[in-house]
Specification:
The structure holds two protein chains of two kinds. Chain A is an all-beta fold. Chain A is built from no helices and eleven strands. In chain A, strands 2, 4, 5, 6, 9, 10 and 11 form a seven-stranded mixed β-sheet that branches. Chain A is globular, with a radius of gyration of 13 Å. Chain B is built from no helices and eleven strands. In chain B, the strands form two sheets. In chain B, strands 2, 4, 5, 9, 10 and 11 form a six-stranded mixed β-sheet that branches. By secondary structure, chain B is mainly β. The chains are: A mainly beta, B mainly beta. The interface of A and B includes residues 45, 48, 95, 101 and 107 of A.
Chain lengths: ~120, ~110
């Protein structure tokens, strides 16, 4: 089936540094998402992005977080500055549309460790 | 906000047996329920979904039942194979785009 790619698969950084997580969504998809999963906990929605804009975000999407997709390249999640509690696996997803009945396709995740 | 509970957290079956995974949600505004499978070291893979105007959906060995009154779903996997070993996640979605996930059910199918 359609595949979403994520780069890198793992990232280790020091607290306070900036990190950018990259997502290559399915080629004809228009809606992009980030989810966060802390070890041992449920996956939780962070943000939805369409047409260059954040459409929805959860309370987990702190001010230190930002997303963009410049010129149809990677869809990125930037965290600046990082905090210890940002350590988690971040999953990118994409879909054709946001409506019900439209499946979101997930990437393999980026495991982020903030020291 | 929406909460999704999934049970059991894990189960082990012999190849050929059936598996039943239960999921309940709290928000009556949720209208779409996709299920995903995650094999060890691999990405979440969409396997089946159901909308709130349906009661039952089948895809080969997967049958998904939905009860709107009780806000309950169940995924039935028949004739299990070792390749069915994975973590299975139910999720719920309202008219917003966010999916709310359950905590997952780890299924181990012994050959």
């Amino acid at each position: 089936g359609p595949k979403v790619l994520q780069i890198p698969s793992h990232q280790i950084i020091d607290m306070g540094q900036m990190v950018t997580l990259n997502c290559d969504p399915v080629s004809n998809h228009l809606y992009f998402y980030w989810y966060k999963q802390i070890l041992g906990q449920q996956m939780e929605f962070l943000v939805n992005f369409y047409n260059g804009k954040v459409m929805e975000k959860s309370k987990l999407f702190k001010d230190q977080f930002s997303v963009e997709r410049p010129d149809g390249s990677y869809f990125t999640l930037k965290i600046q500055p990082t905090a210890l509690e940002d350590s988690a696996v971040y999953f990118c997803a994409s879909s054709l549309a946001p409506g019900t009945g439209i499946a979101q396709y997930f990437g393999p995740g980026t495991r982020l460790l903030v020291l | 906000g929406e909460q999704v509970e999934q049970l059991p957290s894990s189960l082990i079956v012999q190849e050929g047996a059936s598996v039943l995974i239960n999921c309940s949600y709290t928000d009556s505004a949720s209208v779409y329920f996709p299920w995903y499978k995650q094999e060890p070291g691999k990405r979440l893979q969409f396997i089946i979904d159901i909308r709130s105007n349906m009661e039952r959906k089948q895809n080969q060995r997967l049958t998904l039942l939905f009860d709107k009154k009780t806000k309950h779903l169940s995924l039935h996997i028949t004739a299990t194979q070792p390749g069915d070993s994975a973590i299975y996640f139910c999720s719920a979605k309202g008219f917003a785009s966010a999916l709310t996930f359950g905590s997952g059910t780890k299924v181990i199918v012994l050959p």
